[in-house]
Design a protein that fits this description.
Number of helices: 2
Structural class: mainly beta
Strand order of the largest sheet: 1-2-3
Shape: globular
Distance between the termini: 65 Å
Mean pLDDT: 85
């Protein structure tokens, strides 16, 4: 008997927080690329509630959005933070 399992739908996880450490957080983007966001460069996440960090969306291929934190980031700004001076009122 030669049976193959059928695919059960599509992968809907476009972006996923895979780890949070004292130094930053890791994202898996479209099951292809892992990104690290250090808290020193992305301070909005340092003291945020974990459930708010995990609630991340990918409205377009180069745009990340955390609705509970009202944080928008381009993927390019994570790859090259030196090109995107970030200003935060967080101390």
């Amino acid at each position: 008997m030669n049976k193959k399992s059928a695919s059960l739908g599509i992968d809907i996880s476009q972006v996923e927080v895979t780890n949070i450490s004292p130094h930053g957080l890791w994202l898996l983007l479209q099951n292809e690329e892992e990104l690290f966001l250090p808290f020193c460069e992305f301070p909005w996440f340092r003291d945020a509630n974990i459930s708010k960090i995990f609630n991340v969306e990918l409205p377009s291929p180069n745009h990340l959005y955390w609705p509970d934190l009202d944080v928008d980031l381009s993927v390019e700004s994570i790859h090259n933070p030196e090109r995107f001076p970030l200003f935060s009122q967080i101390g």
